[in-house]
Amino acid sequence: MQYRQGDAKDPAFLRELLSERWDAIVDFMVWSTAEFADRVEQCLNATGQYVFVSSYRVYADSPVIAEDSPRLLDVVDDSDYLKTDEYALAKARCENMLFESGKKNWTIVRPAVTYDGTGRFQLAVHESEVWLRRALNDISVPLPDVICGKQGTMTWGGDVARMIALLIGNPQALGEAFTVSTSEHQTWREISEIYKSVVPTLKVVDCDMAKFERAHGAVYQIRYDRMYDRIIDNSKVLAMTGLNQSDLSGLHDGITRELNGYLARNREKALHMGSDFGRNARFDKLVGGLPSFSAVAKNGMVPICKYLIRRFL
User: What is the model's pLDDT at position 113?
Assistant: First the structure.
């Protein structure tokens, strides 16, 4: 077993790494379209199987998502959005380079939302650094009811890793795309209740969607993902890997296990409000009052000023 450590976005390091021949490369990097265009040929030439980690966010709105479901890049008519290289579009454009490469030694994997004991616990568009810290400090979390009613699919990271591992070295996986995910889905409101069973101080409050978009900032992720029902047909990856849906962690038990374990190891870290004082101020504007102020004030005058500016302007 060999280990190499370096900056994959350093062309010299990557060139040296790819000068060798690898049995498989699993690429978790987030590349811009331009960056990937400069590297895709090197990656394909350096390995027998190049596993490109894309995202289920490439899919457009579909009643049920399968690998042949329409992608946003191909069907969305938002010209302003298409001018960007936002995450979902960049991933789809990178996929296209593999489709058009003339090679078949690649496998595309598209994970849905994942959770694990490292602290990755999303609540719709909120990362745990936001909702969990606010909840632990007994501060309400703003989230429009219309998002809370949408279906979300969340998969334990260990199950995603197992699916990817079982695709590596499988010749039938070459030249194919797989949505590596559970098929279990629940509304974000139901998922919030699972979180609340572990963190009883979690309070999710409704707010105006337009104001929420301005406060949060991830407008395209909200509009072109979390405002869709995300229900996944994972039959293709199960058939290829020999797994059954029953082999995957159930959402309630999996989240409860991983979140309890994370808090047992990291409660003090999770309590700390972090440095995103402006965003917490904007969220406080949505829930009313100054609930984050006392936590922010512990960090000195500069954070206080940032907080008050964002809260009242």
Answer: 98
